[in-house]
Amino acid sequence: MNTVRHGPNPAVEPARILLVDDEPHVLSALERVLRNGPWSVETAGGGDQALEHMARQPSWVVISDYLMPGMDGVELLAEIRRRWPITRRVMLTGHADAGAIERAVNQGEIYRFLNKPWHPQQLLATVRECVEQYRLACANLEYERELCARNTQLTRLNAELEEQVRRRTEALLQSEKMAALGRMAGGVAHEINNPLGGILAFAQVLQRDLAGSGPDIQEGLQTIRECALRCKTIVDHLLSFSRRARPQDHQPVDLNRTAEAALALLRLDVRYRERPVEKEFAAVLPPVLGQDSLLQQVVLNLLQNAFQASPPDRPVYLRTGTDGESTFLEVEDRGSGIPNEVLSHIFEPFFTTKPAGEGTGLGLSICYGIAREHGGDIRVRSQFGQGTAFRLLLPQNGARSEVRS
Ligand SMILES: Nc1ncnc2c1ncn2[C@@H]1O[C@H](COP(=O)(O)OP(=O)(O)OP(=O)(O)O)[C@@H](O)[C@H]1O
Ligand SMILES: [Mg+2]
């Protein structure tokens, strides 16, 4: 990982020592002792000058006199500590005010203090130690920064990972739920299919055998047949929801044609004849492998839902295109949208928000079953009050073919 260095770089820069005293001869005496060391030495005649110097280029070590006109040494070093915390601060004092110095040392304003007159070896040793301490403090700061950056990166990665796990778990739960529902729906439908066949067959036999009977009996038998046929449609839908893939029935399908054919079928229904549809078909669309009639059924269901959810004058968008490795077909409306609490249930068989008699709640579960049967998926985006888009995604098959819409 690249780290950006924000402060001084003691690995490449020479150490800088700042001497602060209002008496020039003290400054030159200090300079004389320090001038041959592995550092550069600068001087300031008072607190204000020292702070200006620090603001231009912070020193590693500041050695200040205690008693100076204006700002005294403790005030100066306290300010330096506040603004440049890693600069090592040394107080030089010949004054007897030991109490003030001790307090300053205790409060951490001063790192060391040296008595006047100083011993040159002691001064050199103190400065060397301060330089070393400064280097360590800089390295620590750098480690802290690096740690902080790595921590931030780790926190972000962790959050991304958690989000991924959450999404995958949700997808897994949804597909397990749908698989279980599929098995149950398939089992029930299969069981109902046989007695239903019996009802239909015997209603027909009775209609024939009792052809000479009165109109009441004939009408009753006709009602039995119609009701049984309605049940059969539902059972067929349930079976198509739970049907296993039958790749042998699959052919290359052009989704543009499928969409056109489904729309034409829907236009036969007087309720949808005049409804505006905006077609946005891809000019070049990779074919998919599938069963055209089933895929048309998906488009029909999606279009019906879209029309039912939006006002009659508002257009519904019918799109085709490619999305990564998939070819898609999308139906988008600017209708009611789907509230969040409803969204997680819409693919379940018999889930409907429509009034009794208007919807069986099978449309989307059938679409889902068909999508899965084709190795694809259906995704939904919806904004409550704004509209909904359903996207059928199917794996692409073979070479791209030119398809004109
Ligand atoms: N485009 C849409 N806009 C708003 N809500 C929708 C849309 N499509 C589906 N829904 C919601 O999802 C539910 C389930 O849809 P689904 O197609 O499975 O059944 P249905 O339309 O209620 O009945 P059926 O399709 O059997 O006539 C709907 O009742 C509705 O609440
Ligand atoms: Mg529907």
Strand and helix layout:
Elements: E1 15-20, H1 24-34, E2 39-44, H2 47-56, E3 61-65, H3 73-83, E4 88-93, H4 98-106, E5 112-115, H5 120-209, H6 215-242, E6 251-253, H7 255-267, E7 277-280, E8 288-290, H8 292-309, E9 316-323, E10 326-333, H9 340-343, H10 363-373, E11 377-383, E12 387-395
Parallel strand pairs: 1-2, 1-3, 3-4, 4-5, 7-9
Antiparallel strand pairs: 6-8, 9-10, 10-12, 11-12
This protein binds adenosine-5'-triphosphate and magnesium ion.
CATH superfamily (homologous) name of the largest domain: Histidine kinase-like ATPase, C-terminal domain
The total count of helices amounts to 10
Ends: how far apart? 52 Å
Query: In the CATH hierarchy, what is the class of the largest domain?
Result: Alpha Beta
Strand content of the residues, in percent? 15-25%
**Which molecules are bound besides the chains?**
adenosine-5'-triphosphate, magnesium ion
Average pLDDT reading: 87
Q: Whole-number radius of gyration?
A: 42 Å
Strand order of the largest sheet: 2-1-3-4-5
| N-to-C order of helices and strands | EHEHEHEHEHHEHEEHEEHHEE
Helix content: 40-55%
Q: What about the largest sheet?
A: 5 strands, parallel
> Which CATH architecture of the largest domain would you pick?
2-Layer Sandwich
State the secondary-structure class.
alpha/beta
CATH topology tier name of the largest domain? Heat Shock Protein 90
User: Can you tell me the number of structural domains?
Assistant: 3
Shape: rod-shaped
Query: How many distinct beta strands?
Result: 12
**Low-confidence segments:** 1-6, 398-405
